[in-house]
Amino acid sequence: MITPYTCGGELVAGGGEGQVSAIVWAIGGSDCSAGAGIQADLQAINGLGAHGCTVITAVTAQNSVAVSQVNPVSDLVLQSQLDVLLADLPPRIIKIGLLATVSQVVMVSQWLQQLKQTSEQTGHRVPLVVYDPVAVASSGDNLVAESTLTAVTKHLLPWIDLLTPNAMEAALLAGMALQDGVLPEPVIKQLLALGVGSVLIKGGHYQLLADHCLDYWSNGDSQRYLSAPRLDTAHGHGTGCSLASAIAAIWAQGYALEDALVFARGYLQQGLAAAVSLGAGAGPVKHLGWPTDSVMLPRVGASLAELTASDELVSPVPFAPCPQRLGLYPVVDSVAWLARLLAAGVKTLQLRIKDPQSPDLRQQIAAAVALGHQYQARLFINDHWQLAIELGAYGVHLGQEDLQTADLAAIKRAGLRLGISTHGIYELLRAAQLRPSYLALGHIFATQTKQMPSQPQGLFRLAQQVQLLPNTPLVAIGGIDAERASAVMNTGVGSFAVVSAITKATVAESMIAKLQHIAGDPVAVAETNRVAGACL
Ligand SMILES: Cc1ncc(COP(=O)(O)OP(=O)(O)O)c(N)n1
Ligand SMILES: Cc1ncsc1CCOP(=O)(O)O
Ligand SMILES: [Mg+2]
């Protein structure tokens, strides 16, 4: 389907909902063979919809086989680029690659310190910094001296929000080795102690799971694991630069970091899968824009146990199915509202009672279930999964937090459908691994109904996720009303859920009919056609 947010089936970079506004600076070295360095950075950043500016630290002479020279620019040349850009095109994110001398490391560190402190003091957005510590090229050649790495640990790391070393670089910076098959916790701990905000250790040169590249991210409090099949390719020139720049470009556009990690890993996987020989050595990673095929995306988890457990869950028994298109999906807080909606012909609906102490909770759910059966409707119960099982509801809807405590096996055994809330691609993939009946994507627009910890996802991200999971029933929720509902459906999503569009409507019944029509409810469409026919 071609929608305003896709162009000939391709997702249009830049979000489709506004102009390119995310400026990402790439500070690093020029690679004249254009496989890595600033040249790769620019391709990744611009191809993913941000605007890349460049600050050159060194002119390298290299090709696909070897790095023959690293010619650092003078500190004056480096400083002049930083100054002129800052005066006109301030960065949302700065991606740093090659810093070629101790003096460059010290200068950039001091400059970052000042930029961060001034931004904070003046109430401006503090730019985030992603550092890919380029120490060794993929050809195996050393790019910087040991003294430069020592300066990095001393001066630069405290100003880094995300460090993206491979195993060798992590070991060099932390001063301790990584062992295959052993989680790199002590190394991460050491890097965090040196002042970085979070670390992504890439699995390309380090084996944690057989046949898989496992990337491991931690900020000390939480962890993210991303695993993708190890590709048998000799053509990975520019892998590190491309991944770090892709993360920066996506993060700069307001995606949560965990979502930037997922999309960037998919970007790299598709680039490596398509890479071909160019020159006598390692060919360059291909730059193909947003990943649009879920095969390229990693499997994800918040612990290694979860990820390895999902090895057994590659094809777990799915939850009981529900239709791809659920029609209009109102979410309401009383049996009275359910009765009104069912009478209006609504076939998918949810009882969402937020007061767990409600004395008549059981009676309300029992009455709701009875009504659902009477109208042969798909009634989901929010949160109260035990009562939903006991009282024989059609399904249960659970949020992210509920997934920690709910007995999913019991819900599955009882034959109830399961819907799960998600707020970005990381949560979406993680929840999809459980094979639920549907996945909810929210919030799409700002909502007054619920305080959301995440940012609105908007239509571009909705379309992106729909394209990646075409065979899973998906429901959009959050801030959807009669004016926005058609654009929501145009993304290809199966259905949309609403609260206030109906509960705050002046005349609920006519709003329900309008929304049913937009959602493609068969009864509503037939009724509209009948009325239109009668008018002719
Ligand atoms: C269809 C649908 N999508 C999302 C939600 C939100 O559920 P949850 O994350 O559990 O938050 P609460 O509704 O419990 O506040 C939903 N209820 N329905
Ligand atoms: C429960 C919930 N979960 C995500 S957004 C939301 C509220 C949706 O309400 P509204 O349709 O009024 O924006
Ligand atoms: Mg809930």
State the helical fraction. 25-40%
Name the beta content range: 15-25%
Bound molecules: ligand LCLJCK34, 4-methyl-5-hydroxyethylthiazole phosphate, magnesium ion
Major β-sheet strand ordering: 5-4-3-6-7-8-9-10-11-12
Number of helices: 20
Distance between the termini: 31 Å
Shape: elongated
User: What number is the mean pLDDT?
Assistant: 90
Largest sheet: 10 strands, mixed
Strand runs, count: 20
Poorly predicted parts = 1-18
Q: How would you classify the helix and strand content by structural class?
A: alpha/beta
Rg, rounded, reads 26 Å
Explained architecture:
The chain is an alpha/beta fold and 536 residues long. Helix content is 39%, strand content 18%. The protein is built from 20 helices and 20 strands. It is elongated. The structure holds the ligand Cc1ncc(COP(=O)(O)OP(=O)(O)O)c(N)n1, 4-methyl-5-hydroxyethylthiazole phosphate and magnesium ion. Residues 329, 331, 350, 352, 382-383, 397-399, 419, 421, 440, 442, 450, 475, 477, 497 line the site of the ligand Cc1ncc(COP(=O)(O)OP(=O)(O)O)c(N)n1. This is Thiamine-phosphate synthase.
Write the layout of secondary structure elements.
Layout: E1 6-7, E2 10-11, E3 23-31, H1 37-47, E4 51-62, E5 67-72, H2 75-88, E6 93-96, H3 102-121, E7 128-131, H4 146-156, E8 162-163, H5 167-174, H6 185-193, E9 198-201, E10 212-218, E11 223-229, H7 239-252, H8 257-273, E12 299-301, H9 304-312, E13 329-332, H10 335-343, E14 348-351, H11 361-374, E15 378-382, H12 385-391, E16 395-398, H13 402-405, H14 408-413, E17 417-422, H15 425-432, E18 438-441, H16 458-468, E19 474-477, H17 482-490, E20 495-498, H18 500-503, H19 508-519, H20 522-535
Parallel strand pairs: 3-4, 3-6, 6-7, 7-8, 8-9, 13-14, 13-20, 14-15, 15-16, 16-17, 17-18, 18-19, 19-20
Antiparallel strand pairs: 1-2, 4-5, 9-10, 10-11, 11-12
